[in-house]
Write a structure and sequence with these properties.
The protein is an alpha+beta fold and about 150 residues long. It contains four helices and five strands; from the N terminus they run H-H-E-E-E-H-E-E-H.
């Protein structure tokens, strides 16, 4: 499944969860419901995936934890907050850089209508590589590693 198709499938699942339980739930409850919906839809996914960080040639195995990686092409980060902040988008972008994935969804379930809580994030450096644009050596983050999938 391609990343855009996967994102549509995940959004459908998220809408199903939000319709059923509404806003105001804990993130752990929302993740449990979304886990159930993704499984029911037959999507391949991993939950609470640890992303390592390479720092000065040392692999730090449990630096980050991603809520969901779906169909080996999409990172999904769940929030239940009053409003999304730039730091939440930065978190997803960090996950994209570390994992090598190109697309991520940041979904805030604490909104009256879920479409108000969905943000799509794209790894700019990964997209440049896909488009065949050469990266200037200064744009590569020092010590960040990950395979491009």
């Amino acid at each position: 499944m391609r990343p855009n198709d996967t994102s549509h499938a995940v959004i459908d699942c998220a809408l199903e969860v939000h319709t059923a339980i509404g806003a105001g739930m804990l993130e752990s409850a929302v993740c449990a419901c979304l886990f159930h919906e993704l499984k029911a839809k037959g999507l391949h996914f991993e939950h609470q995936v640890h992303l390592p960080l390479i720092y000065k040639q040392v692999r730090l195995p449990v630096a980050y934890r991603v809520d969901f990686i779906v169909e080996n092409c999409l990172i999904v980060e769940i929030k239940c907050v009053e409003r999304l902040l730039p730091v939440h988008a930065a978190q997803v972008l960090s996950y994209l850089k570390l994992s090598g994935y190109k697309l991520g969804l940041l979904i805030n379930f604490n909104v009256p209508h879920l479409r108000q809580g969905i943000r799509c994030e794209c790894c700019f450096l990964c997209v440049l590589g896909v488009l065949g644009v050469e990266k200037h050596e200064d744009t590569e983050a020092v010590g960040v590693g990950g395979s491009h999938r």
